[in-house]
Amino acid sequence: MKMFKLFLFLLVSTTVFFACSKEDEGTPTDTVEGLWIGTYGFGNDSPDIFFSFNIKPGGVIEELNKSKGVKGSGTWQLVGDQFTASYQWGAPYFTAYSVSATFDKAHGKLSGYWGWDDNDSDGGKWEMEKEN
User: Fold this and answer.
1) Pairing between strand 70-79 and 34-40?
2) 49: Cβ–Cβ under 8 A, 6 or more apart, which residues?
């Protein structure tokens, strides 16, 4: 009988553990403003290169490096769930970029396309999750 109870306990514990260990689905968020961390890729490649934004109130956006230093800045807007932004890197490159994405408020995610200058899709794909 003790073996049966031990077996039942292990079975239930394992079931509960695996039922609770779902893939990270992000965290719900009320606003697009905040720190975002993710990746980008070129063309149709899967995003795998570090990418980060600090989306600030008043329509100001900053692209950040891994140590959270500002690489560039510009403006953003959100219409419904469609996020768009244009920004420019600082010296010495002064490269201009545009991005567009869908804002998934329920999961705290942005995913879309990026490009050079005013074209928001000729560069590749990107995705980010909001940091808490």
Assistant:
1) unpaired
2) 39, 40, 41
- Can you tell me the distance from the alpha carbon of 42 to that of 40, in angstroms, rounded to the nearest whole number? 7
Nearest residue to 105 (alpha-carbon basis) of 20, 10, 17, 28: 28
Q: Each residue of 24-71: pLDDT tens digit?
A: 567 888 899 999 999 999 999 999 999 999 999 999 999 999 999 999
* Confidence band of 112 (pLDDT split at 50, 70, 90): very high
DSSP annotation of 58: G
Q: Give this prediction's pTM.
A: 0.80
- Give the start-to-end residue ranges of the domains of the chain: 32-130
CATH number of 32-130: 2.40.128.490
